[in-house]
Amino acid sequence: MSEISQYALDMADKVEAFVREKVVPYEKDPRRDHHGAPTDELLMELRGLAREAGVLTPHIRADGSHLTQRETAVVLIKSGLSPLGPLACNTMAPDEGNMYLIGHVGSPELKERFLKPLVEGKGRSAFFMTEPAEWGGAGSDPSMMKTTCHKDGNHWVINGRKTFITGAQGAMVGIVMAASAEEDTKGGACMFLVDLPDDAIRIDEVPNTIDSSMPGGHATLTIDNLRVPAEHMLGDPGEGFKYAQIRLSPARLSHCMRWLGCCIRAHEIASDYACRRMAFGKQLIEHEGVGFMLAENEILIKQSELMIDWCASVLDTGSLGTVESSMAKVSVSEALMKIADNCVQVMGGTGVTERTIVEQVFREIRAFRIYDGPTEVHKWSLAKKIRRDWRKAQEAAAKEAEPA
């Protein structure tokens, strides 16, 4: 198991102090878009404060190297102590996952052009993979991808539709995934880095959603003859699905880290409320129905911390960790949903108002159970592995039983 460096521990302390002292007061800031997400004006103001405090993009060192996943966990959990914390510190999705992918797959030239401004917090990015269900496109099953790309001289031309593209509106960098029509790619997917905005990418809709923490919302858009220079392909042609796994496994875990931080803060608020509020002659927390919910929260928080640390340790070995990240995504998202629900319940009417962040945390965690793969998809994937392992065991037993 990789050790957590003193650098990471010190950075986590700095991030926590920054979020609690500087970011939390902004939670009531009215600069929000049509569905309640922070505007880019607010985002850049917060990032300016993070830059001054030395906590901007804290999971990437000055030399461009990433912290280990275990180290990233201690930092990102602290950044999540406010819904605005990951935005301020530049640890929020989809940027954090996109930076990870470009850093691991991109050429030096692509890193200089596309990664550097993201690390410096100068703009946002978007990951274009999911497609509209009514179009028959890719959702949890990326092999259904209908967006296509083909060569045209020294460019690739992309056509298709995408949906639920977080942060697309207002982003400066996009990673577009498309199925290749070229014979030498064997029908595999390709990934491209694109400058945004681009007239060939038309945003059709940015719906109001239950969550409201991510600038730019979750857009549906049309890609109409988008021309991308061949040198802007991310990695090799036809390897897009492999690269998607490089991004998605740690990105799922990063979501767990950030939202655990939010639930820790919500639990603090609910606990404070229960210890101050009097009902039926005693503090709320003295009533078993309330005290037991908060006790359950303490247990679920610790379970989530352990699950995150275990999965991070696996990823630090160099494994893709798809099984482990699926387990973590299911376990942590379901545990955090229970924590958030308990916090709302403990606080009663106050818990469903905007007086505290508890109401928002509940909404954000409900959405978290869906994005980066719904609970049921991950369980289905794990069940398939159980069947595969059983078949292998049966085959091995049968082979061993064969006469010499």
TrEMBL record:
Residues of the Acyl-CoA dehydrogenase/oxidase C-terminal domain: 238-385
Q: Which GO terms describe its biological process?
A: fatty acid beta-oxidation using acyl-CoA dehydrogenase
Cofactor requirement: FAD
The domain of life is Bacteria
Q: Acyl-CoA dehydrogenase/oxidase N-terminal domain: from which residue to which, for each copy?
A: 10-122
Q: What Gene Ontology cellular component terms go with this record?
A: cytoplasm
- GO molecular function list: acyl-CoA dehydrogenase activity; flavin adenine dinucleotide binding
- Ranges for domain Acyl-CoA oxidase/dehydrogenase middle come to 126-207
**The protein's assembly and partners:** Homodimer.
Stated name of the protein: Acyl-CoA dehydrogenase
Question: What organism is the protein native to?
Answer: Novosphingobium resinovorum
